[in-house]
Amino acid sequence: MKMREALLNARSYITILLGFLLGFAIVVWVERQMPTRVESTAGLALSKTFPPLPTTRELTFNEAIWARVAWQYYVNNTQPNGLANARDAEPWFSLWSTGSYLFAAMAAQQLRIITPAEFDERIAAALFSLGQLPLNPQGLPASYYHADSLQILGKAESSAIGMGRLLTALQTLLWRYPQHAAEIHDLFSQWQTGALIASGETTRASLPVHHWTLATDEPRNSFGYRLYASQTLRHVGSEAGLAVTNPPEGQSMIDIDGIMVPDEGLRTPWGRQPSLVSLPYLLTGLETGFDAQSAEIAWRIMQIQQRRNSLRVRKPPISTDYAEPAPDYVNDLPNREPVNQVSVSNAPPEQYAITSTRSAFAWYALFRNGWSEALREQVVKLQVPGKGWQRGLNLNNSVNNVIDGDTNAVVLESLSYIAHGQMLCLSCMHTSSPTTPAAGATP
Fold first, then answer.
1. What number of helices (H) and strands (E) belong to the chain?
2. CA 106 to chain centre
3. Which residues pair with 183 in a beta bridge?
């Protein structure tokens, strides 16, 4: 009886204790469902299961048509000054989108969609206009420009990642099309590329290795994009290679379904959300060829996607590509309807996650299997003859109907990879002009 009375008297304390234990159990359960992070990006080596890279082949008739649909975007959106709009009918461009245009033109020439004469004319016009761009106080091109007037849009700061892509395209032009070398050298004589690498605090007193500091509003500030841009930025100066290949402080790996990949979660008000970023690794494979690190990361991301796609009980999707909003200040362009856009940094990842057209084509070009073929089939319906390819499918399966340069450039690069291999290929120099046209193409 005394025990019962004691329990009755202590029932409120027991209730509180049980509530605490229940809450603690819920927290532990939730934490166990979240991917595990470890503070290391070292030790990435090519796994034994990595598949052989596909051999080149002629395009099918449909693929040749798809390439022409993609090139039509640039037919429609190349300005009289020789540079191309970043989005359909919107007169602005970025350093990143200009790199995409140069790669698109190279791919179109490789696929014989345009003649060598048209290619040379387009490249010469683009390089001349790049030389006319007003520079910021550091002697560098700004991130964004008005496509008609070539005036800087928004802040005058440059983008190290955007410049990295543009420099990768210029480097490829130097190797494959040396007739444009003098024009490219003129650009480098104007641009103070050394200002791209900002020196931070030294990691050791005796070794001047600096961390690569990007602008806080850099939209592509992630490990993958840093790795992609570092391919060319490492050649900027004597210390640049050390800086750009040194992982940022706090960079970690994340365990997703038992596979470790770089933690590239988007920053949101709710913390860094688990997400994957595949585009920079895919671009590396298409343009300069995989190294062991980029190839292994791409392979791991693909395995995660394949596993999740094959589960009977579906897990929440983790996308590998995200729709990037146009900069806010492009609303100031003439004849453009203002659009209220939520900043990527303040929105949940799923708001911008997409099954993207560009990634679907790139996955198929680099890893041709049943999964990548099915992925590409999903986006085939997104071609708009006479305009180009739409961006992709949103998570609710609605169409993201934006037509932009990046999407169409990667489609062209992917199809060129199928027919001719990577864009920068030293052993391909003697065949830079294909002897036979792609299927369905005309000389």
1. 14, 13
2. 19
3. none
Count of domains for the chain: 1
Least confident of 130-139, 217-226, 327-336, 348-357: 327-336
CATH number at residue 129: 1.50.10.140
Reported confidence tier of residue 338, pLDDT bands at 50, 70, 90: very low
Q: How far apart are CA 278 and CA 280, in angstroms?
A: 6
Domain range for 255: 57-327+345-428
For residue 2, the model assigns a pLDDT of 65
pLDDT more than 70, % of the chain:
70
Does any domain span residue 419?
A: yes
In Å, how far are 66, 67, 309 from 378, measured between CA atoms? 14, 17, 13
- Does residue 434 sit within a domain? no
Cα torsion 424, 426, 431, 433 to 10°: value is 40
pLDDT of residue 320: 74
**389 CB-contact burial (10 Å; exposed 0-12 / middle 13-18 / buried 19+):** buried
Report field, pTM of the whole predicted structure over 0.90: no
Mean pLDDT over the full length of the chain? 81
